[in-house]
Design a protein that fits this description.
645 residues; two-stranded antiparallel ribbon; single chain; Myeloperoxidase, subunit C; mainly alpha
């Protein structure tokens, strides 16, 4: 179809609500950033046959087992952060589920094909099982770990070429984790009353997520016939209690805003109420991600180099219709999986006084089991636990709850998430680690312009500590064989950030494209009136949790950072100076209005700004060592694989 036919009504000047599937955000290229499209590529894929088969060592041999790399590099070493709360990990997962969901190969009945203990001539063609070494300490009774390749997808122009993978979600930061990525998703989630989303009524407390009527193998486990699994915009909602709690918070937030808009604009239609509420919620998700989350993840130099800092006043003028916001394969498959190292082996609950509750359960015993959220006060206890419990440091170490016990079932051992990450990178044709450092301009030149060949060269060119290089040399034949995920994870963090230079390069460019290529970005002219935008800039995750909880009384204002008596103390949820409110008075429509656009009634009173609050707090360093590479605007010309800068 012609673009003007495909994009009605979004082609009309001034149409202000984005599509559910992300299409027609870009009117010249309507499919950019839309759901059910191939991931973008920052670098061409690296397949052994140039088309589909996984790459091999530079010697021509098979690459080492992903499980062997995992046990050699991603050991279970507990190194809790001194400053970061587990809420940062939880927001990262929630954010990831707004941006990426790779389609997996399934059998005709939607079951996952089995690859181990199946004769090679009878196995599914997309089987790529992970070899388990004979001397594996934990998996000592099996030589094979299940792994099925991501399903291939036609290329955007329907030409022949290397295998590509499908993103089932929109690439825009558009609340698809809350609202879904298709019209059918959204229709099933809406209440169609007062602009609200569907919910489960619970006596003596606020609502829970609606019931999931049908689910497939592995999506949810019920411990009682009286309970139910949850339905949300993303199918992974039941994966672990912290994620289900975050989904619940944003369901409540949507419905709270809808109630407030109904009160100040009773004349609005149900559709306008819903769309205006959705638009506000999307803006709040964008603001929290770029104002609270990304600065801690990337640090000030990377934020500045990629133009990620939000404006404090006025409108953003850098929207560019030539920028494709489609999420890149490398972001979804490697770089944004950094958060697996932040995960703790247990998810604490806390009471309203922020005290740890005595009953603790291993994380692997709570995966895919949302039953506890039905208990009175459980969403509050999980939220307070996430805001109080320290995350693990961002390093190469990953808890054995994820590397040995992932999705374990009664009488069976689990899977290894780190090995899956490595194998997934090979499945998707990600080039090796050094290719990414090279493309980002991060390989230090060797003396006498020597080519990088030895492990000593690897250490010199990357600055990675010798003991970490030794881990790689014990399993890989060549420095050019090292997979991106373990390579990026062993890097020291950039100054003021969490991830190292290579992941900073990839993540920074991804979020630059997501912002600059989004016609509906909340700071863009025409999206919100100035008073509305000023109100939205007071959004914090702490305020959202305060407003949507059952009985939380106090939180630290900067919720991704641990409470600090002087700089980030617990504040009352009714202390609007410490935890500012988002006033919706700017959405009050004048009685004389003749269209659906809210007309500002009066300038709302000035409120304390989150910006002034956040800038008074500088988090202590995570450790004594950081990578001394400093990202500056001049570095951008080195990122030559990124054509959209």
């Amino acid at each position: 179809r012609q673009n003007d036919e495909l994009c009605l009504p979004w082609a009309f000047q001034g149409y202000k609500y984005r599509s559910v599937d992300g299409a027609c955000n870009n009117l010249v290229n309507p499919q950019w950033g839309s759901a059910f499209q191939p991931f973008a590529r920052f670098l061409p894929p690296d397949y052994d046959d140039g088309i589909s088969t996984v790459r091999k060592s530079t010697s021509g041999n098979e690459l080492p087992s992903a499980r062997l790399v995992s046990t050699s590099v991603h050991k279970d070493v507990s190194r809790p952060s001194s400053t970061l709360t587990l809420m940062l990990m939880q927001w990262g997962q929630f954010l990831d589920h707004d941006l990426t969901a790779t389609s997996q190969t399934r059998s005709f009945n939607h079951s996952i094909p089995k690859c181990c203990r199946v004769p090679l001539n009878l196995s599914h063609p997309d089987c790529l099982p992970i070899d388990v070494p004979e001397y594996d300490v934990f998996f000592n009774d099996t030589r094979c770990m299940e792994f099925i390749r991501s399903s291939p997808v036609p290329r955007p122009d329907c030409t022949l070429g290397p295998r590509e993978q499908l993103n089932q979600l929109t690439s825009w930061l558009d609340g698809s984790v809350i609202y879904g990525s298709t019209d059918e998703d959204l229709k099933a989630l809406r209440l169609f009353e007062s602009g609200k989303l569907s919910y489960s009524y619970m006596p003596n407390r606020k609502s829970l997520l609606p019931r999931l009527q049908h689910f497939h193998e592995g999506e949810c486990v019920l411990t009682s016939p009286r309970l139910f699994c949850f339905h949300a915009g993303d199918t992974r909602v039941n994966e672990q209690p912290g994620l289900a709690a975050m989904h619940t918070i944003w369901l409540r937030q949507h419905n709270l805003i809808a109630e407030q808009l109904t009160a100040i604009n009773p004349q609005w239609s149900e559709e306008v109420l819903f769309q205006e509420t959705r638009k506000i919620v999307i803006a709040q998700v964008q603001h929290i991600s770029y104002r609270e989350f990304l600065p801690l993840l990337l640090g000030p130099s990377v934020m500045k180099a990629f133009g990620l800092r939000l404006l404090k006043t006025g409108y953003y003028s850098l929207y560019n219709e030539t920028i494709d916001g489609t999420v890149p394969n490398v972001f979804a498959t490697a770089a944004f999986r950094f958060g697996h190292s932040l995960v703790q082996s247990q998810l604490y609950r806390c009471d309203e006084a922020h005290r740890e509750m005595p009953h603790k359960v291993d994380l692997s015993q709570e995966l895919m089991i949302p039953s506890n959220l039905h208990n009175l006060g459980e969403v509050d206890r999980i939220s307070l636990g996430l805001a109080s419990q320290k995350a693990q440091r961002r390093d190469e170490f990953i808890t054995s709850e994820l590397t040995n016990h992932l999705f374990r079932t009664q009488g069976h051992k689990g899977l290894d998430l780190a090995a899956i990450n490595i194998q997934r990178g090979r499945d998707h044709g990600l080039p090796p680690y050094l290719k990414w450092r090279e493309a980002c301009g991060l390989l230090k030149p060797l003396l006498n312009n020597k080519s990088l060949e030895t492990w000593e060269d690897f250490a010199e060119a990357t600055g990675i500590f010798p003991e970490k290089v030794a881990m790689f040399s014990s399993v890989y034949e060549s420095p050019w064989d090292v997979d991106l995920f373990p390579g990026g994870m062993v890097e020291l963090p950039v100054k003021g950030g969490l991830v190292g230079p290579t992941f900073s390069c990839i993540i920074g460019q991804t979020f630059r494209n997501v912002r600059r290529g989004d016609r509906f970005w909340f700071e863009n002219p025409g999206q919100f009136m100035s008073a509305q935008l000023r109100a939205l800039r007071n959004t914090t995750l702490a305020r959202v949790i305060c407003d949507t909880s059952d009985a939380i009384r106090t939180l630290q204002p900067i919720i991704f950072l641990a409470p600090h008596l002087q700089k980030n103390p617990h504040a009352s949820c009714t202390d609007y100076k410490s935890i500012p409110r988002v006033s919706l008075e700017a959405w009050k429509e004048l009685p004389s209005s003749t269209d659906d656009s809210p007309k500002i009634h009066a300038e709302p009173p000035e409120q304390p700004s989150f910006y002034s609050l956040a800038e008074t707090f500088e988090s202590p360093p995570e450790g004594s060592a950081t990578d001394e590479i400093d990202f500056t605007l001049e570095n951008l010309d080195k990122f030559r694989m990124f054509t959209n800068i």
